[in-house]
Amino acid sequence: MQAARFSRFGGPEVLEIVELPDPHPGPGQVRIAVRAAGVNASDWKKRRGLMDEELPQTLGYEAAGVVDELGAGVRDVALGDRVFGFAADGSAQAELAVLSHYAPIPPSLDFAGAAALPAAIETAMRALDQLGLVAGGTLLVNGASGSVGSAAVQFAVARGARVIGTAGPANHEVVRSLGAEPVAYGEGMAARVRELAPAGVDLALDVAGSGVLPELIELAGGKGHVVTIADVAGAQEHGVRFSRGDSGRATHVLGEIGELIESGRFVLPVAQTFPLADVAQAHRVGEAGGVRGKLVLVID
User: Fold this and answer.
1) End-to-end alpha-carbon separation of the chain, Å?
2) In this protein, which residues make up the domain named Enoyl reductase (ER) (predicted)?
3) How far apart are alpha carbons 241 and 130 in whole angstroms?
4) Separation between Cα atoms, residue 176 and residue 180, nearest integer Å
5) Which residues, 6 or more positions from 161, have their beta carbon under 8 angstroms from its beta carbon?
6) Distance (Å, rounded) from C-alpha 152 to C-alpha 2?
7) What's the rounded Cα separation, in Å, for the pair 99 and 102?
8) 152 close to 207: Cβ distance less than 8 angstroms
9) Residue 293, exposed/middle/buried by CB under 10 A (0-12, 13-18, 19+)?
10) H or E stretch at 261
11) Is 188 left (phi over 0), alpha (psi -120 to 50) or beta?
12) How far apart, in whole angstroms, are the C-alpha atoms of residue 146 and residue 20?
């Protein structure tokens, strides 16, 4: 099979499409003929040598496609089913991928729309689970217009929470359309939040990693009411929980998202698609910033 890989660290130019052996599913896993695979910031962090030291490395943790091989004990899907989910070995940007956690693709989604979901919705749901968000609470999302932030907003609204979301002025209407009350980030953010919530908020989620953890702690009434997914150093400095995938993943969201999507309560747009051969260009676009929605590789 063909797959995206790099054999040295560097810029997008180190990415190549190579021929690798076909993978096969283990017990409880399925293999899919990949039709689309999500692209994430972790991909270029890996490519630049900021995450893992070993070489070479393949890429991709989320994909959607058609089941073409079943692992032992799999009874919940059949050959030919459309599914999406996580590739545990990080090789989803390929013609074939083995999924360790998966679910049926919601009927209204195409493959690209389904491949955009797993990483964003799992990260958002995991953080909200760790915060213990319940109906009636007020949540502040710092960075509410990106993929993970917008997912967190929609999940929180679906739980019956009030949500305040920080974003640039150009994205305020987007944040409002998701069900949150937008405020501008930057200097004076805390004061603007208190104009909407004079007593502060119950919980805060930092998605943007913009150095505002002290303000979030003050607004939420303590470090135990704040989770960050983006600021490792700040979390260590201020005693805030940093949400990691290895601390218990919220894979249950794969099976739950369909109902929200089909009822019109959740949307995660695909910003742009690229053929697998253009993975380097996808990295260039993603690293340049300013993308609203997910970047997705498509495989014919």
Assistant:
1) 13
2) 10-297
3) 9
4) 5
5) 133, 134, 135, 136, 137, 138, 139
6) 34
7) 6
8) yes
9) middle
10) helix 253-262
11) left
12) 33
The owner of tokens 């959607």 is 64
Distance CA 143, CA 117 (A): 18
Cα→Cα distances 8→15, 16, 46, 171, 299, Å: 9, 11, 11, 37, 24
User: For 163, how many CA atoms within 13 A lie in the half-sphere containing its CB?
Assistant: 31
Residue 185's nearest CA partner among 209, 202, 157 is: 209
Question: Tell me, what DSSP letter sits at residue 22?
Answer: P
Both tokens assigned to 127: 């953080």
Distance CA(31)–CA(22), nearest Å, equals 10
Residues 84, 87: Cα–Cα separation, whole Å:
10
**Distance of alpha carbon 146 from the chain centroid:** 9
Tokens representing 170 are 């150009």
Residue 121: closest CA among 291, 258, 264: 258
Q: How many CB atoms lie within 10 A of CB 36?
A: 25
Name the amino acid, one letter, at 153.
V
- Percent helix, strand, coil in the chain, to 5, is 35, 25, 40
pLDDT 10s digit of each residue in the chain, 300 long? Answer: 999 999 999 999 999 999 999 999 999 999 999 999 999 999 999 999 998 889 999 999 999 999 999 999 999 999 999 999 999 889 999 999 999 999 999 999 999 999 999 999 999 999 999 999 999 999 999 999 989 999 999 999 999 999 999 999 999 999 999 999 999 999 999 999 999 999 999 999 999 988 999 999 999 999 999 999 999 999 999 999 999 876 678 999 999 999 999 999 999 999 999 999 999 999 999 999 878 889 999 998
Categorise residue 68: left if φ over 0, alpha if ψ from -120 to 50, beta otherwise.
alpha
pTM score, whole prediction: 0.94
